Amino acid sequence: QVQLVESGGGLVQAGGSLRLSCAASGRTFSRYAMGWFRQAPGKEREFVARINWSGGITYYADSVKGRFTISRDNAKNAVTLQMNSLKPEDTAVYYCAADSRGLGTFDSWGQGTQVTVSS
Question: How many angstroms separate the CA atoms of 57 and 36, rounded?
Answer without folding.
Answer: 14
